[in-house]
Every structure is written in C-alpha cells, then in structure tokens.
C-alpha cells in the first residue's frame, strides 16, 4: 500500500493522517445530521467534537504503546507522532466516549439520546479510519495465501514487508459499513433511549473479536483471547446492558 500520499521537498503527507482527518469530519457531519433528526442541539457536536478527538487520539496511541512498547525503544518521542500510523481504535473509542459522557454530564444533556445519535456516525467514521490503517500498514493481518491477500513493500509501512497478509483492516472496514447500514435500518424501530448505542457496541464488539482472529498474533491476555478481544467482551456486556435496559 502507500503510507505516504505526497512527498514534495521533504514535506510528507501521510495517508493515515489524511484518512483519520476525513473519518473525523465525516463522523462529525453525520453526527450533526442525526442530532438534528432527534431534536438535539446540532451545534453541540462542534463543541464536544474537539475534546473527543483529543481524548480519542491519546487513548488510541496509549493503547498502541502498551501493546507494542518495543517499537518506541530509543525514541520515546515517537509516541507523539501518531499521524504516521500506530493507533488502536478501540482504545481511542473508550477514552473518547469517557470524554464525551463527562462533557454531556457537565452540560446536563441526555446522554443516552446523544449516544444513539452518535452511534451511526461512529460506525461511519470507523469505515474510513480502517482504510487509513490499510494504507499505513497498521492493524495488519496474519500471513495468508488467500487470493485477496495484501503485501506491503513500502519501507515506511508499519506492516511486515514482502509477506502476504490477511487484509484485516479491510475486514474491519467492511464490518463497520455493515454495522452502519444495520443501525440506519433499525434506528426507527428501536424506541428506547440507548438501544441504538447498545446495538452498536454489541455489533462492534462481536465483529472486532471475530476479525481479531485474522490479525497478527498478540500475547494472549485471557485464555486464547487478545487484549483487544478481552476489551471487546467488556464492550459487549455494556452494549447488552444498554440495549435491554429500557428508558423512555
């Protein structure tokens, strides 16, 4: 793939950064659309969007650092250079959600209604975000000889070079697209506040656990499960609780 889109006179524009910016803007735009549809203050999306972005980036990078500390040996400052790739999206989702709920609590907003409004937007942003990982090489899959396998050859790629790999990032992107479509199709039928958000968390957790079996090997954290899968189990329980706990 192509981790650097443009390199002019030493100025490099990384595909990962471009895709992440696009994912953020697209999620913001769709979030405003859904907020208006639910009678919420659309302008608040612009207010809390910045804080969620900062918290999400910090959480994504921190989670990546905890999983791959060896990549930063001798150059700890690289922890700050997130734009060239190396984020764990589920970690950013958690810290971003915490920042969001803290902000909404301060503003005395209906948290469940907002979570429902932002769930489809989050799924849509994940579609684009995972494509950024595809270009950068982060989140790569296990070695495979399937016909649709990908091979990284660019020296700046984060994935192993010249090895045929499962396109795990593409699997994640397709799963996120399916989740987005499902949420749009069912949001009108789910009347209780929090159910759309709960459904999103459940679908995201299940898809993440499934795709992670095609990812590069982590050291098992819980029996045969990776750290990301272990976190996904927690999200699955939280999503189920939101879905079954009805609130008008």
Automatic annotation (TrEMBL):
GO MF, one term, reads: phosphatidylglycerol-prolipoprotein diacylglyceryl transferase activity
User: Please, one GO biological process term?
Assistant: lipoprotein biosynthetic process
Keyword Membrane, does the record have it? yes
Q: Could you confirm whether the keyword Transmembrane helix appears in this record?
A: yes
Instruction: Give me the Gene Ontology terms describing cellular component.
Output: plasma membrane
Q: In which pathway does it act?
A: Protein modification; lipoprotein biosynthesis (diacylglyceryl transfer)
What is the membrane topology listed in the Swiss-Prot or TrEMBL record?
A: Multi-pass membrane protein
Q: Which UniProt keywords apply?
A: Cell membrane, Membrane, Transferase, Transmembrane, Transmembrane helix
The EC number of this protein is 2.5.1.145
Among the Pfam families in the record, one is LGT
Give the superkingdom in one word. Answer: Bacteria
Location of this chain's protein in the cell: Cell membrane
Membrane-spanning parts:
12-32, 44-67, 87-106, 118-142, 162-184, 196-214, 220-244
Q: What class of enzyme is it?
A: transferase
**Family of the protein in this entry:** Belongs to the Lgt family.
Task of the protein: Catalyzes the transfer of the diacylglyceryl group from phosphatidylglycerol to the sulfhydryl group of the N-terminal cysteine of a prolipoprotein, the first step in the formation of mature lipoproteins.
Tell me what this protein is called: Phosphatidylglycerol--prolipoprotein diacylglyceryl transferase
Q: Which gene encodes it?
A: lgt
């Amino acid at each position: 793939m192509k981790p650097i889109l443009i390199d002019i006179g030493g100025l490099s524009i990384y595909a990962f950064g471009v895709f992440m910016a696009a994912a953020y803007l697209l999620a913001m735009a769709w979030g405003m659309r859904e907020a208006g549809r639910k009678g919420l203050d659309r302008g608040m999306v612009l207010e809390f969007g910045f804080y969620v972005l900062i918290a999400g980036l910090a959480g994504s990078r921190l989670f990546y650092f905890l999983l791959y500390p060896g990549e930063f040996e001798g150059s700890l400052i690289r922890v700050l250079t997130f734009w060239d790739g190396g984020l764990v999206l589920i970690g950013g989702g958690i810290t971003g959600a915490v920042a969001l709920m803290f902000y909404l609590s301060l503003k005395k907003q209906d948290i469940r209604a907002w979570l429902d409004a932002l769930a489809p937007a989050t799924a849509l942003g994940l579609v684009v975000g995972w494509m950024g990982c595809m270009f950068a090489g982060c989140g790569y899959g296990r070695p495979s000889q399937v016909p649709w396998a990908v091979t990284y050859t660019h020296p700046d790629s984060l994935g192993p070079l010249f090895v045929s790999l499962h396109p795990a990032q593409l699997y994640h992107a397709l799963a996120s697209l399916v989740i987005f479509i499902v949420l749009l199709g069912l949001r009108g039928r789910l009347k209780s506040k929090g159910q759309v958000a709960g459904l999103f968390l459940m679908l995201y957790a299940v898809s993440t656990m499934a795709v992670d079996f095609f990812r590069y090997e982590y050291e098992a954290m819980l029996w045969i499960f990776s750290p990301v899968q272990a976190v996904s189990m927690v999200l699955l329980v939280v999503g189920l609780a939101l879905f079954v706990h009805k609130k008008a």
